[in-house]
Amino acid sequence: MSIRTFSFACLAMLATVATAAETITIATVNNGDMITMKELSSEFEQAHPNIKLQWITLEENILRQRVTTDVATGGGQYDVMTIGTYEVPIWSKLGWLKKLDNFAADYDVDDILPSIKNGLSYQDELYAAPFYGESSMVMYRKDLMQKAGLEMPNTPSWQFIKQAAAAMTDKEAGVYGICLRGKAGWGENVALITAMANSFGARWFDEKWQPQFNTKAWQDTLNYYVEVMNQYGPPGASANGFNENLALFQTGKCGIWIDATVAGAFVTNPADSNIADQVGFAMAPDNGLGKRGNWLWAWTLAIPSSSKKSDAAMTFISWATSKGYTELVASKKGWKNVPPGTRASLYANADYLAAAPFAQITLDAIRSADPVNPSVLPVPYVGIQFVAIPEFQGIGTAVGQQFAAALTGQMSVEQALLNAQRTTERTMRKARYPK
Fold first, then answer.
1. Helix (H, G, I), strand (E, B), or coil: what is residue 277?
2. CB 109: neighbour CB atoms within 10 A?
């Protein structure tokens, strides 16, 4: 064969490969871990020249709106979607997601932490693969705890948290004993207060889907929350969500912060945190009833039923949520920055444990979370800090506004719970529950 003939043959082969390459569209949220995934995806394309990736990266609320509209209408715009633990069981039941059952041979599904896996399953089948997972925990200033003459237990009670918050508060010095989410929203104050309520014996609905805000357990929960926040929390707390409380804690203005385990990497980073070397960690509090006030969440990758390229999408998901991807991030960004909270093997890795002082608490918190049995009493729903029904986003937003009004003193705790009860009853009647 002549050189010229060989060259034409090579060009023809390359053209064939290029023609055969399949493009999949990935819709994802614009947080740091997902941006890293996009950045490192060139490694995937090099290993899979027959698959090309098209990225659509959006702010969380816009992402939710667009992917929900697309998946509900069967639009088929996306082949891989980033969705959360809330959406997976709902969308799986509605038939909007494809079952994930064709992972790479070395994927090791059994390595996924059971509580994360169960939250992403429907009828014992996995419908989304976890990219990273989280629970919630207590973060506290060890120096202020020592100054107060107290020692944080690994498994504190809500009563101890209140005692410690009181002892650590020094308002004249601009130090507040406790920072908790106060901003209204189903993913903001409702997430925290619902997880707290579980440990107080409260629940959103009984087994017959009757709202339960008119119970003593809910009154005890909201009274505790409002009292500690008003006495020992920062001013203007009704405007504070995760990011605002993170900033307060990092600048030394909070003695105790109870929030997502992913914050561990932020509060111990000396580049961002003034008190990085003084941060301690503990499990979310309990009330002696057998349940802790910690939640469970995961950002996941899923394939909509409308995708026409599910095989290529499955190949990408297998790569992005694999052990190999974790090792890739570690080699490029360091072990502290790998996606946390999804695999048991990560928490057996000595390099990760050495880099992440919050690792064991994160693992224990995730393992203890049970989305099927979130409260002390039986419930008809799945979810810890949310209820996995389509109506919850609207209900949760409305109830969050009542909780925020109680915090600011616009209404009493009793009135806020009465309003929450009536709002929820009305929505559930309209939706014809029980179904």
1. helix
2. 11
Same domain, 257 and 304: no
How far is the C-alpha of 99 from the C-alpha of 339, rounded, in Å?
A: 23
- pLDDT string in tens for the chain (435-residue length): 444 444 444 444 444 444 468 999 999 988 878 899 999 999 999 999 999 999 999 887 788 889 999 999 999 999 999 999 999 989 999 999 999 989 999 999 999 998 899 889 999 999 999 999 999 999 999 999 999 999 999 999 999 999 999 999 999 999 999 999 999 998 899 999 999 999 999 999 999 999 999 999 999 999 999 999 999 999 999 999 998 999 999 999 999 999 999 899 889 989 889 999 999 999 999 999 999 999 999 999 999 999 999 999 999 999 999 999 999 999 998 898 899 999 999 999 999 999 999 999 999 999 999 888 999 999 999 899 999 999 998 999 999 999 999 999 999 999 999 999 999 999 999 999 998
Q: Looking at the structure, do residues 278 and 310 belong to the same domain, yes or no?
A: no
pTM for the complete prediction?
0.85
Give the single-character DSSP code of 321: T
Residues of 257-278 as b/e, b for ≥16 C-beta within 10 angstroms?
Answer: bbbbbbbbbbbbeeeebebeeb
The total number of residues shown for the chain amounts to 435
43 in Cβ contact with 33 (< 8 Å): no
**Cα Rg, the chain, nearest whole Å:** 23
Q: Which one, of 424, 115, 160, lies nearest residue 295 by Cα?
A: 115
- Residues 204 and 215 reside in one and the same domain: yes
d(CA 41, CA 28): 13
CATH number for the domain including 151?
Answer: 3.40.190.10
Specify the DSSP class assigned to residue 139.
E
In this structure, is residue 351 part of a structural domain? Answer: yes
User: Is the dihedral angle over the CA atoms 46, 48, 52, 55 positive or is it negative?
Assistant: negative
> Which amino acid is residue 267, in one-letter code?
V
Shared domain check, 148 and 283: yes
- Statement to judge: residues 265 and 222 lie in one domain: yes
